[in-house]
Amino acid sequence: MIVETLLETLKIILIIFVLMVIVEFFELKYRDKINNSITKKPLRQYTLSSLLGVTPGCFGAFFIVSSYTHGIVGFGALVAVMVATAGDEAFVMLAKIPGTALLIFFICLVLGIIAGFLADKIIKKTKLKISKPCEIEIHKKQDLQGKSFFRHFLKKHIYGHIIKEHIPRLFMWLFFTMLIINFLMLRFDLGSILPQNKLALILIAALVGIIPVSGPHIIFVLLFAQGIIPFSVLLVSSIVQDGHGMLPLLSHSVKDAFYVKIFNVIFGLGIGLILLAVGI
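Request: output the structure for the sequence above.
Response:
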């Protein structure tokens, strides 16, 4: 069982690595064009933020957080990207449940736009004070031109970011989660261990989604792939959790991160309750 789990993990990790490299290359290469397309029109901010959010990985969320700290986008755009993003779990979904993953991405894209609109309305109505922007230089201009771009991409992004930061952590979470699930499925009936009440599962997914890192949420992807939990639970997990996207925001403003997470939890639970009411 250990060998089979290891081989399956390595296969998934390889797929994830290739996807990460492709996604990060295009997002870094066309970063300026994306930035220039952002205007003061809120709807465009919500749409672009949601599009970047559903892009697998954390780069899209990091980009919007950076834009927010620079004062380029507003609070609604920040909420939109966090609702839309599923972090590194998006890569696992593409590897394990590609059809469902695309459906999740589309739904989260739409929900991100709606959430961004609602968040800005709530901020204006309640007059909540959010942090002021600051100036943070992320990449030097020469790092993104000609041969320097590829050197920078290989050193900082493929090796420094993907290989050093994401792959080892993803491997550990994926391997041990799959190993535990495979062991439990061999020994027990997981359907009888987990709460039978869908509402309880949705609440658990929302609570786990508060954790501001990629990894713990993989369990919901794997449980759904095994047919153990319903679609509504996986969707709530995808809405509430934001991978590593929240970490740079926490370093900028704990208060803003708290506002975003509270909104996302309430929004995700609301969507979960609607799906529960219609029997999904």
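The two ends are 33 Å apart (CA to CA).
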